[in-house]
Amino acid sequence: MRKVVLLLLIGFAFSCSDEVQIPEIIQPCQPVAASFASDITNNSARLNWCGTVNDAGECLPVTGVTWTASWGSPGFNPDEGTIIDTPTSSINITGLSPQTSYEFYVKSDCDLGNNEWYGPTEFTTSCPAPTNLGAADITQTGATLTWMPGGSEIAWEVKYGLVGFNLEEADAFATGDNSGYPITNLQPNSDYEFYVRANCNATTDGDQTGSFSAFSGPYRFSTCLPPLNLSIDDVTQISAGLSWDSNSQTVWEISYGEAATFTPDTGTMVTVSNTNYTVTGLCPSTTYTFAIRTLCGVTTQSSWINFGNVTTPALEYTGMYTYEEIGNTDEPIFGNPTTVEMVQVSDTERSITVKYLANLDVMNTQPTMTFNFTLNCDGTVTVTDDQDTNFNCGGDNVLLGQGMAMPASYNITDDSTIDIRFVEDTASATCTNAPQSEVVIRLTKL
After folding, report:
1. Residue 15 lies inside a defined structural domain of this protein
2. Does 430 lie in the same domain as 342?
3. Where on the tree of life does the source sit, at the highest rank (predicted)?
4. Are 406 and 347 found together in one domain?
5. Of 14, 51, 303, 442, which sits most exposed with the smallest number of CB within 10 A?
């Protein structure tokens, strides 16, 4: 029993001593097994690394580790490069120069002495991708593909096919002439697209990273041919005549609308099978744009071709007109003037001034009244409600209100005759009021 107690006392004494320390277990830094660059463009690249590589040579990322990457020009000191800390095993860097060599280092973010930079890994940015892709000299079986060099490169690689073709599996065609790459044996009335990339080294070795730019595209074109020789004539206040040459096609789609907001895909559209068409339902004093394309199938069309802008003529209806009231058997409301002058207030608004006969017995005079009406784009006339005359009867003005009957009409392209319909009401309790009555007046150009 004494031995047990003694051992317990000795153990207690050692556990309380300040001189006895339990050694700390220090984990080594995570090493880097491999690194490489990918997704290289003319001004960016993705830097990648892995903590382990399996037997199949696959790069395996490591989670739960913070990494430090450093990049710069070849030969730079990684401690003085562009430093990026990241919890992932890849980063994307931008702002690089085209056709320029860079290198990068990477290490795990820990402070032990065995934590050394892994690298350098070198990569070269590509040249800029071509721009301004286009297609010219399109026929039903051929076209010339064009583009603008992105830099000083002198060789390119072209891939083309029907819309939706597999870019990775398509044949590549090399050329040293960006002024146009002719292609033939296309299918008529079909949709095609093409891609182009620059050969940065002017050789098609395909081995060096960055030897090609990224592909530009797709640029789409169709062997469905657009019409030719478009023209506009016979423009009136409400119509315009369009005509074109068929270019060996048979069905077309016309789109039109007001020029300020017009786009072919959102305009008013009509399908025709003749090489001329008169667009109607336009408005006077309005600028329109017209476009046309060929329809070769349910989903195959030519590009839109623009006719240009046309401004329809202004409405006439100004000057002297004879005046008569239609269907009114009572005393003429406006004193049956022989003639009136129609005055232009705006593009569509006009006014006339007439002598008013209502309440003649009160004031023993014939006051005049000027009222406005609008010539609508559809050939109808609108009379504004509650227009005042220029005389006062017991404190209340004489008013006009628009009638409930069908609107009156006029001929937009011929200012010879106009019928105006409205409701007349003196609207005064202190005057000898005439009952409300519908008035139709007819004005005929002198």
Report:
1. no
2. yes
3. Bacteria
4. yes
5. 14
What amino acid occupies position 11?
A: G
- Cα separation, 69 vs 47, in Å, equals 9
pLDDT tens for each residue of the chain, 446 residues long: 444 333 333 343 434 445 545 444 445 688 899 999 998 888 999 999 998 888 888 888 788 889 999 999 999 999 999 999 999 999 999 999 988 899 999 998 887 777 889 999 999 888 899 999 999 999 999 999 999 998 888 889 999 999 999 999 999 999 988 778 999 999 999 999 999 999 887 644 444 445 788 899 999 999 999 999 999 999 999 999 999 999 989 999 999 999 999 999 999 999 999 999 999 999 999 999 999 999 998 889 998 999 999 999 999 999 999 998 887 656 667 766 889 999 999 999 999 988 776 555 455 566 677 888 999 988 899 887 766 554 444 444 455 555 555 668 899 889 999 998 877 665 544 455 455 667 788 999 99
Out of 283, 311, 339, a domain closes at 311
Rg from Cα positions in the chain: 43
Q: Are residues 145 and 210 in the same domain?
A: yes
What CATH number corresponds to the domain at position 269?
A: 2.60.40.10
Q: Outline where DSSP puts E strands in 177-251.
A: 181-183, 191-198, 216-222, 228-233, 240-245
Distance CA 131, CA 446 (A): 64
- Its domain, for residue 279, covers 228-311
CA dist., res. 428 & res. 212, Å (int): 88
Judge whether 272 lies within some domain.
Answer: yes
Q: What DSSP line would sit under 399-411, residue for residue?
A: EEE--SSPPEEB-
Of 124, 148, 180, the last residue of a domain is 124
Residue 218 in 3-state DSSP?
Answer: strand
For the beta sheet containing 131-136, the strands, ordered from the edge strand earlier in sequence to the opposite edge, are: 131-136, 143-148, 181-183
CB contact at 8 A, 263 and 440: no
Alpha-carbon distances of 316 from 271, 280, 281, rounded to whole Å:
33, 19, 17
DSSP character for 307? E
> 21 in a domain, yes or no?
no
